[in-house]
């Protein structure tokens, strides 16, 4: 270990995910084994100050491009103790609210060692004539000085690894230890990697009793979060919450848990609505969506009172559209167009080839006729038709077919682009707003979308309700339909004929759970190959080679699977197919990130939304350049003919895409899909998963794997997320409850209010429940109900 002192001149690089930084440091004094004045120092650092002086401990290492660097294993801030630098430091943004004047007062009272004095004896703060707010800022700033290394070290002693410790630090900064000491379980909901079990290990070690309310509340949070993130459920039934919590906590009584449920309600952290419990922000988002939808309907009804189109004009406009498109809409399709033109909000859902896009075209043509919109207006800066979809690919397709600009929802709103604040998004105005691929829109994006609708006269939501729901929580599209609050057209008739017709028929049969044997037939467009799990990768590599031989281009072939791991998992299949499609060549450039090799020519998948660069979760691109020397532009990829560069840090958002999961394939279509499912995918085998996979194939489909897995998927209904939006929408719109299951105990007066105004009700157990580890706790719950006190 070597030590040296230096002044930070700048931060060259910082990774906000793991606190890794590269610092430009001016050496003060001497650094053994190094003769220049400046050096790059790398390592994990908390909130370091540019111009601040630090003592670094670590070692010199040789970097193949940048030469000698210092890798710091720990560091310590050297507190300023000259009048000028101390005044500057105290009045910097590290101490908000303290200016030069207050800094002068502090120095006068405590001297040039003011900072160390306060660190060692915080009570000295009382001798200062500052406002309470200034005193608080000063103390909290002083506490966080140099705290990073100290905190990471202390957390390591507790067994918390550096990554999780870094995340905790990012959230609480200098107050990390204080926060954890006050409540080890409170961060369960806040920090990934710091779950209930980890908190409990520490808690039990420190003598926290099993019925400590902090512990019980941590478990309640963990259960609600798990349901939300792994299943997409926005609420959990109280009975289930209690039994799951009792299992997680290993407590054989339910009363202390019920008490904590009540406390959490009073603290505004969870909401109990009828028989269900939800995280506050999730419940609030659903409530907000219902309220905004109601306002949208009412506002437009008011506007439209005297401006309804004459039904005869609507019919004539549809006829005109038919003429232009040289087709005849069937009755259901016509009804969809009429709904769109005569209602403020309408919904259109249908499987592949049922004419959704053809209807969008008809709506726009008819509306141009009815609202007398000149062609020039369509391409103005404030166009009357707003078209958008959650993915770039779907937006592009809408644009190609309608000839009118279509954007991703993020672009339409200006969301995540630059430093915008959520209240400052684009306001949506115009004759009509049409959103395609609605099944992919999650509750948060949906709320943002509808919050920014201002004068749009008609809104049409288009999608396929039977596909997998959004990756994010909730099931917005399905909930809107289930609410029956908006005129909805369900398209059943298949209009697409020709090349891929047997796949489309298969897709509809899967959805309707009809003729299960069809899937195992060999047809013009699809076939089934039986294969045991351990041979999946071999089988797929043979099919890929054969497809290439038969003239399919590399870009046409897409392998789909349900999971990442195992022989048939996406990770292994990517290695296998990369070896066939893009094998290593002599001197070819490559880069390794998170155990994957990326080469020029590789197909890649973006895993996160990145509106700033206009690339989105699920978007597929191709690597066109690699520069291992550059950390800022180490990989360049083409996404829909647009070049996007990636820094080393961004590579975490990329993976190879020869094989992708069905979830990630939503919204994309490919000429040849090779799908594999086995019983190893047991938990995921549902009808909507299979349906989504099959509908990704444009022309050809090869189904590989275990027939039992396919049958299981066929027989297991999907779209079973538990969400509260349907009931909330119906309440807001003054409709009756749909069924007894959804009947809540909430009183009528609370119907239209937001959660914040909603008074929590306390719940009690109506009979004593004795927990027995021998029986399934759900059995014990029968007849046990919670009711409002
Ligand atoms: N009423 C109709 N008469 C004749 N052809 C039609 C009719 N409706 C749709 N089509 C044709 O059927 C095909 C499928 O229609 P369209 O692309 O609009 O369906 P879609 O529901 O958007 O399908 P997908 O989701 O698979 O893209 C198109 O070739 C379209 O021209």
From TrEMBL:
<dbReference type="InterPro" id="IPR006345">
    <property type="entry name" value="RecD2"/>
</dbReference>
<comment type="similarity">
    <text>Belongs to the RecD family. RecD2 subfamily.</text>
</comment>
<dbReference type="InterPro" id="IPR027417">
    <property type="entry name" value="P-loop_NTPase"/>
</dbReference>
<dbReference type="GO" id="GO:0006310">
    <property type="term" value="P:DNA recombination"/>
</dbReference>
<dbReference type="InterPro" id="IPR050534">
    <property type="entry name" value="Coronavir_polyprotein_1ab"/>
</dbReference>
<dbReference type="InterPro" id="IPR029493">
    <property type="entry name" value="RecD2-like_HHH"/>
</dbReference>
<dbReference type="GO" id="GO:0043139">
    <property type="term" value="F:5'-3' DNA helicase activity"/>
</dbReference>
<keyword id="KW-0547">Nucleotide-binding</keyword>
<dbReference type="GO" id="GO:0016887">
    <property type="term" value="F:ATP hydrolysis activity"/>
</dbReference>
<keyword id="KW-0238">DNA-binding</keyword>
<dbReference type="InterPro" id="IPR027785">
    <property type="entry name" value="UvrD-like_helicase_C"/>
</dbReference>
<dbReference type="Pfam" id="PF13604">
    <property type="entry name" value="AAA_30"/>
</dbReference>
<keyword id="KW-0413">Isomerase</keyword>
<dbReference type="InterPro" id="IPR041451">
    <property type="entry name" value="RecD2_SH13"/>
</dbReference>
<dbReference type="Pfam" id="PF18335">
    <property type="entry name" value="SH3_13"/>
</dbReference>
<dbReference type="InterPro" id="IPR055446">
    <property type="entry name" value="RecD2_N_OB"/>
</dbReference>
<protein>
    <recommendedName>
        <fullName>ATP-dependent RecD2 DNA helicase</fullName>
        <ecNumber>5.6.2.3</ecNumber>
    </recommendedName>
</protein>
<dbReference type="Pfam" id="PF14490">
    <property type="entry name" value="HHH_RecD2"/>
</dbReference>
<dbReference type="InterPro" id="IPR003593">
    <property type="entry name" value="AAA+_ATPase"/>
</dbReference>
<feature type="compositionally biased region" description="Basic and acidic residues">
    <location>
        <begin position="745"/>
        <end position="758"/>
    </location>
</feature>
<dbReference type="GO" id="GO:0005524">
    <property type="term" value="F:ATP binding"/>
</dbReference>
<keyword id="KW-0347">Helicase</keyword>
<comment type="function">
    <text>DNA-dependent ATPase and ATP-dependent 5'-3' DNA helicase. Has no activity on blunt DNA or DNA with 3'-overhangs, requires at least 10 bases of 5'-ssDNA for helicase activity.</text>
</comment>
<dbReference type="Pfam" id="PF23139">
    <property type="entry name" value="OB_YrrC"/>
</dbReference>
<dbReference type="GO" id="GO:0017116">
    <property type="term" value="F:single-stranded DNA helicase activity"/>
</dbReference>
<feature type="binding site">
    <location>
        <begin position="353"/>
        <end position="357"/>
    </location>
    <ligand>
        <name>ATP</name>
    </ligand>
</feature>
<dbReference type="Pfam" id="PF13538">
    <property type="entry name" value="UvrD_C_2"/>
</dbReference>
<dbReference type="GO" id="GO:0009338">
    <property type="term" value="C:exodeoxyribonuclease V complex"/>
</dbReference>
<feature type="domain" description="AAA+ ATPase">
    <location>
        <begin position="342"/>
        <end position="495"/>
    </location>
</feature>
<keyword id="KW-0378">Hydrolase</keyword>
<feature type="region of interest" description="Disordered">
    <location>
        <begin position="734"/>
        <end position="758"/>
    </location>
</feature>
<dbReference type="GO" id="GO:0003677">
    <property type="term" value="F:DNA binding"/>
</dbReference>
<keyword id="KW-0067">ATP-binding</keyword>
